[in-house]
Design goal:
This protein is an alpha+beta fold. The protein folds into 2 domains: about 110 residues, Rieske [2Fe-2S] iron-sulphur domain (Rieske Iron-sulfur Protein, 3-layer Sandwich); about 210 residues, Naphthalene 1,2-dioxygenase Alpha Subunit, Chain A, domain 1 (Alpha-Beta Complex), CATH 3.90.380. The protein contains 5 helices and 18 strands. Strands 11, 12, 13, 14, 15, 16, 17 and 18 form an 8-stranded antiparallel β-sheet that branches. A hairpin with a 3-residue loop joins strand 15 and strand 16. It is elongated, with a radius of gyration of 23 Å. The model has no long low-confidence stretch (mean pLDDT about 95).
């Protein structure tokens, strides 16, 4: 079900402090905290004695003290103190997880620690670019299997029916535009251009387009669950497809899904844009708009999750499902290969 040898987002960097914080990733409970030098620690959130979550204990220096019998675990996960017991068994150790900070996020490696290369974390062009603005959203708890959500992040077609007030072209413009699917290893992209169509409400907030526009929706999923959605809007027939375009507005949305359980996941996101980069009001406006759009997704995907779990008849796939079907097939192959190595 899960690919373990991968980096997953555990949260925004500001969410983690000297307070013990528990998060569930890939059905594993992990406790996070910062050491006194501000570096991060991630440990299995279960004492080896009676499995009380360590997150219910407290910090003693840089050790986590269990709230049941006072056992203290160091940053490596090894128990370093047992009150009233001078001998500490070698097996008195909880799992520790590699953890790094990048792009404002805390990333955790869930698999073989020897393979945890921080350079495998995806790049974010324009993150620190003075000519590009950025807006950050809150983490969202979503009630669906993570692959239900990654299917959605390879599906530009749903926009015309779920996001009418934000991301869809006016008057259903672009609904019949063909979707192109490209596969490069574990990166799958579904994209479509709507040529000489109508702009989406998202873009008309920031430019008064007087005629038709050329509009791109590019949905790229980097398996297992990191997505980048590129959106472009420019005056029609002015070179948008080749990287130009008059009155070109471009927004790249980064959408990171972290599996929790078979029924839940967490959704983390931010956007970078090439317009009004230093306008905080614009950033707030975009964040509010995307919160609304993603809340629409959450309602739909919860219902889809329940429907797929309890359906009495088989479901079918459509042509628009080519990207997500390929993504699921590649994920099965990656998971099978990982299991074979581990066994």
């Amino acid at each position: 079900m899960y690919l373990y040898n991968s980096w997953y987002v555990a949260g925004w960097d500001y969410e983690f402090s000297r307070t013990l914080r528990s998060r569930t990733l890939l059905e594993q409970a992990i406790v996070f905290y910062r050491k006194q030098d501000n570096t991060l620690v991630a440990l299995e959130d279960a004492c080896v004695h009676r499995k009380l979550p360590l997150s219910l204990g407290r910090l003693v220096g840089d050790r986590v003290q269990c709230g049941y019998h006072g056992m203290e675990f160091g940053c490596s996960g090894a128990c370093e103190k047992i009150p009233g017991q001078p001998i500490i068994q070698a097996k008195a150790k909880v799992k520790s997880y590699p953890v790094v900070e990048r792009w404002g996020w805390v990333w955790v490696w869930m698999g073989d620690a020897d393979l945890a290369d921080p350079e495998l974390i995806m790049d974010v062009p324009h993150y620190d670019d003075e000519d590009w603005g950025i807006n950050r959203g809150p983490s969202m708890h979503i009630e669906c299997h993570y692959q239900i959500y990654t299917d959605n992040l390879l599906d530009p077609a749903h926009v015309n029916y779920v996001h009418l007030s934000t991301l869809a072209g006016k008057e259903n413009s672009g609904a019949d535009a063909p979707v192109q699917v490209d596969i490069d290893g574990s990166v799958i992209t579904a994209s479509r251009w709507t040529l000489d169509g109508l702009p989406a409400p998202l873009f008309t907030q920031f430019h008064d387009y007087q005629g038709g526009v050329d509009r791109l929706q590019s949905y790229q999923l980097r398996l297992p669950s990191l997505a980048v959605i590129d959106m472009v809007c420019a005056d029609a027939n002015t070179g948008a497809q080749s990287g130009g375009g008059e009155n070109r507005l471009q927004l790249n949305s980064y959408n990171f899904i972290t599996p929790e359980t078979a029924d839940t996941c967490r959704y983390y996101w931010f956007q970078v844009r090439n317009f009004k980069p230093h306008d905080e009001a614009v950033s707030a406006q975009l964040t509010a708009g995307f919160k609304s759009a993603f809340a629409e997704d959450a309602v739909i995907l919860k219902a889809v999750h329940e429907g797929m779990k309890h359906s009495n008849t088989p479901h079918i796939n459509l042509a628009i499902d080519a990207a997500s079907s390929n993504a699921r097939l590649i994920m099965k192959q990656l998971i099978a290969a990982e299991r074979q190595v581990n066994h």
